[in-house]
C-alpha cells in the first residue's frame, strides 16, 4: 500500500527574521479568486449604498390620522391637493406643497370606503359603512358656519366604492350592484348587475367617458356602457381583482391589480388574454393608478412595497 504524505518546506512559509514580509501562497485556480474578501466587502458596501439610493423618493409623511387610511382621492385641477379617508370615518384634505393638513371632517360612522372629487374640483363625494353617500364642499366653511354636507343620500346597502364622471354631473357607486346616480336625484338613474357577489371598485374611463369598469369578489372584471344600461363584457381571472385603473391616454387599455401578486393590462377589445402581465410583487396587489402621461403606473401591495411599472414592461423599474 502506498501512502502519499503532505510535506512542506518550511523555507516556503516561515520568515527568517521578524522584519521579513509574510509570504502569501497564491492559488492560480481561476475559480478561487485572490480578492474574494475584498470583493465581498465591495458588494456589501454597494448594497448598503443602494438601499440609501432607493430610499431617495421618500419626501415626507403626512401625519394626523388616528386610524388606518383606507382610501385616497386626487384633485382633478390642483396637483397640490390630496384627500384621504380613514377607518374612523375621518376625512382629511392635505396641501402637498406645505405638507400639512388643511381641513378635517368627521364624515361617516365607521370606515370611509371610497372617495372621489367632482370633475370641476368644487366638491367631493364620500361613501361609508353607514350606507350613506355624502357630497362636501372643497372650500372650508366660513367662520361660524357648521361643517355640513351639501347632500346626503341614504342607501339600502353598504357602498364599497365611488367614482365620478369626467364631464357630467353623474357618479357611480358600487357595493351589492353598480348604481349610476344623477347629482340632483336621491335615487339611482340605473342599476347594473352581472352576478351576485359584492363589487369592490368602480372606475369611469377618462376618454370614452360613458364606459366604466368594475371588479367583483367572484373574480370578475365587468365593463359597462352607461348609455345602454346593460353590462358589456366580462373577464374572469383565477383570483380576485382588487381594483382597476384606465389608461388616461389610450381609451381601451386598463390595468387590474390582482390577488395573485400580478397586475394585468388588458385591451378591452380583446379580453381573451392580457396585453402584458406585470410581475414583481410578492403579495396581493391592493391598488393601482396611472401617471397622467399614460406611460407608467404605480402599484401598492400587501408586501409593503410601492412599485413603478412602465406600461410595456413586465417588471418594475
Verbal overview:
The termini are far apart. The model has no long low-confidence stretch (mean pLDDT 90). This protein has helices at residues 10-13, 36-54, and strands spanning 69-74, 81-86, 90-95, 100-106, 112-117, 123-128, 132-137, 151-154, 161-164, 170-174, 178-182, 190-192, 199-204, 211-216, 220-225, 230-236, 241-246, 253-258, 263-267, 276-278, 285-290, 296-301, 306-310. It has two helices and 23 strands. The chain is elongated, with a radius of gyration of 29 Å. With 317 residues, it is mainly beta. It is 7% helix and 40% strand. It has a four-stranded antiparallel beta sheet, with no helix packed on it. The protein has a domain at 64-143: Thrombin, subunit H (Beta Barrel), CATH 2.40.10. The longest helix has 19 residues, at 36-54. This is DCA13 factor. It comes from Nicator chloris.
Main β-sheet, spatial strand arrangement: 1-2-3-4
| Residue-averaged pLDDT | 90
Strand count: 23
Q: Spans with pLDDT under 50 lasting ≥5 residues?
A: none
- Which percent bin holds the helix content? under 10%
What is the count of helical runs? 2
Run of helices and strands? HHEEEEEEEEEEEEEEEEEEEEEEE
Helix/strand/pairing class, anyone?
mainly beta
Q: Name the shape in a single word.
A: elongated
Characterize the main sheet: 4 strands, antiparallel
In whole angstroms, how far apart are the ends?
A: 64 Å
| CATH architecture classification of the domain at 64-143 | Beta Barrel
CA radius of gyration is 29 Å
Task: Give the strand content.
Answer: 35-45%
Amino acid at each position: 500500500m502506498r501512502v502519499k504524505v503532505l510535506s512542506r518546506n518550511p523555507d516556503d512559509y516561515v520568515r527568517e527574521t521578524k522584519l521579513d514580509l509574510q509570504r502569501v501562497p497564491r492559488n492560480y485556480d481561476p475559480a478561487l479568486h485572490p480578492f474574494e474578501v475584498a470583493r465581498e466587502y465591495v458588494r456589501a458596501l454597494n448594497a448598503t449604498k443602494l438601499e440609501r439610493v432607493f430610499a431617495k423618493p421618500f419626501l415626507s409623511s403626512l401625519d394626523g390620522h388616528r386610524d388606518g387610511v383606507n382610501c385616497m382621492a386626487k384633485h382633478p385641477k390642483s396637483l397640490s391637493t390630496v384627500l384621504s379617508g380613514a377607518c374612523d370615518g375621518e376625512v382629511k384634505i392635505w396641501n402637498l406643497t406645505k405638507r400639512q393638513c388643511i381641513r378635517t371632517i368627521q364624515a361617516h360612522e365607521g370606515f370611509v370606503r371610497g372617495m372621489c372629487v367632482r370633475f370641476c374640483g368644487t366638491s367631493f363625494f364620500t361613501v361609508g359603512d353607514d350606507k350613506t353617500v355624502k357630497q362636501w364642499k372643497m372650500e372650508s366653511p366660513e367662520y361660524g358656519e357648521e361643517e355640513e354636507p351639501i347632500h346626503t343620500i341614504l342607501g339600502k346597502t353598504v357602498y364599497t366604492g365611488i367614482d365620478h364622471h369626467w364631464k357630467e354631473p353623474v357618479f357611480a357607486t358600487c357595493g351589492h350592484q353598480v348604481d349610476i346616480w344623477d347629482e340632483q336625484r336621491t335615487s339611482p338613474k340605473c342599476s347594473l348587475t352581472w352576478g351576485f357577489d359584492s363589487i369592490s371598485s368602480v372606475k369611469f374611463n377618462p376618454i370614452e367617458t360613458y364606459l366604466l369598469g368594475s371588479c367583483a369578489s367572484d373574480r370578475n372584471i365587468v365593463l359597462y356602457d352607461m348609455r345602454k344600461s346593460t353590462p358589456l363584457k366580462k373577464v374572469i381571472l383565477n383570483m380576485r381583482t382588487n381594483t382597476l385603473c384606465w389608461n388616461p391616454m389610450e381609451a381601451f387599455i386598463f390595468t387590474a391589480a390582482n390577488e395573485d401578486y400580478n397586475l394585468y393590462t388588458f385591451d378591452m377589445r380583446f379580453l381573451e388574454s392580457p396585453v402584458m402581465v406585470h410581475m414583481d410583487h410578492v403579495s396581493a396587489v391592493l391598488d393601482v393608478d396611472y401617471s397622467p402621461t399614460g406611460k407608467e403606473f404605480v402599484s401598492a401591495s400587501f408586501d409593503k412595497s410601492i412599485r413603478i411599472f412602465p406600461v410595456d414592461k413586465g417588471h418594475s423599474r
